[in-house]
């Protein structure tokens, strides 16, 4: 039942527990207790609202920063990842495979602020060997949600032989 509850909550964190209990055919108290237990165990780590900032007047720049680091003896990548994720500007940190070790997601007001973060905070950490910064130019889909309006007309040109 946990996975079913998680699936519903992941798609709609605002779902009413009474509504969920009706859908699942389980008493609301059972659902509430299960959700509370999963929050206590940190299976459910938080609830978030997905905002399409492009539709507001707020300027935001999202950067994906690849970071190559020297793993720390006895701690691997965990200690350096912790130092990075403790910066308030950092939205996410992932250990990744490939040419880089960590992927850092950052949201700032402008390109200059991202650049300042990388040069003054990230690159100055002893374990950081190199970085590569990529800027998100357009979000098509985020957290499973399509960010653009659905196109109802076919805009392709008709090509005939």
UniProtKB/TrEMBL annotation:
Any one Gene Ontology cellular component term annotated for this protein: cytosol
Recorded superkingdom: Bacteria
Chain segments annotated as coiled-coil in the UniProt record: none
PANTHER family the record matches: LEUCINE-RESPONSIVE REGULATORY PROTEIN, TRANSCRIPTIONAL REGULATOR AZLB
GO MF term (any one): sequence-specific DNA binding
Annotated Pfam families: AsnC_trans_reg (PF01037)
InterPro entries: Dimeric_a/b-barrel, Tscrpt_reg_AsnC-like, Tscrpt_reg_AsnC/Lrp_C, WH-like_DNA-bd_sf, WH_DNA-bd_sf
GO term, biological process aspect, one: response to amino acid
Occurrences of domain Transcription regulator AsnC/Lrp ligand binding (ranges): 65-138
Protein name stated in the entry: Lrp/AsnC family transcriptional regulator
Native organism: Candidatus Galacturonatibacter soehngenii
Gene3D superfamilies named among the record's database cross-references: 3.30.70.920, Winged helix-like DNA-binding domain superfamily/Winged helix DNA-binding domain
